[in-house]
Amino acid sequence: MISKKRLTPGANVKINGYTLQVVKAGDMGVEVTSVEYLDEPEHCTACERELNPERIVWFEMNARTFEVWEENKGTPPAWAGTEDSQGCFPYGPCCARKVRKAGRAIFA
Ligand SMILES: [Zn+2]
């Protein structure tokens, strides 16, 4: 049961692992944002903490060497976007610093 206090417009409410944003709440029920907002939040690849969507740092990872390229930083390496790429992985700001220092992906 979610307390009424938390159902103010703009508030995030967690239900069954989904984060919903309240648009409107009244006696007749609660209106939440559209399906695009129903995605589960991203978790840090290194520490598995839930990430603030505005502070996620994405690293593209080389599938063979685990080398990383920080999205939109500098010139992409030759393997970025090729079949050698394992795709992009989300990190929180603290763990992103560790990844930059290590020069490779860090996993939980
Ligand atoms: Zn982390």
Question: What's the arrangement of secondary structure elements?
Answer:
Elements (H helix, E strand, L loop, with lengths): L11 E4 L2 E9 L2 E4 L24 E6 L5 E3 L14 E7 L1 H10 L6
Antiparallel strand pairs: 1-2, 2-3, 4-5, 4-6
Task: Explain what this protein looks like in three dimensions.
It is a single chain. By secondary structure, the chain is mainly beta. It folds into 2 domains: 4-38, no CATH class; 41-102, no CATH class. It contains 1 helix and 6 strands. The chain has one helix at residues 93-102, and strands at residues 12-15, 18-26, 29-32, 57-62, 68-70, 85-91. Strands 1-2-3 form a 3-stranded antiparallel beta sheet, with no helix packed on it. A 3-stranded antiparallel beta sheet has the order 5-4-6. The chain starts with 11 loop residues before the first strand and ends in a 6-residue tail after the last helix. The relative contact order is 0.17. The mean pLDDT is 83. The protein binds zinc ion. Zinc ion is lined by residues 44, 46-47, 49, 91-92, 94-95.
Structure summarized in a few sentences:
This protein is mainly beta and 108 residues long. It contains 1 helix and 6 strands. The chain has 2 domains: 4-38, no CATH class; 41-102, no CATH class.
- Total domain modules: 2
> Helix/strand-derived class?
mainly beta
Q: Say which molecules are bound, naming each kind only once.
A: zinc ion
- Distance from N terminus to C terminus (CA atoms, Å) equals 32 Å
Strand order, largest beta sheet: 1-2-3
Number of strands: 6
Helix content: under 10%
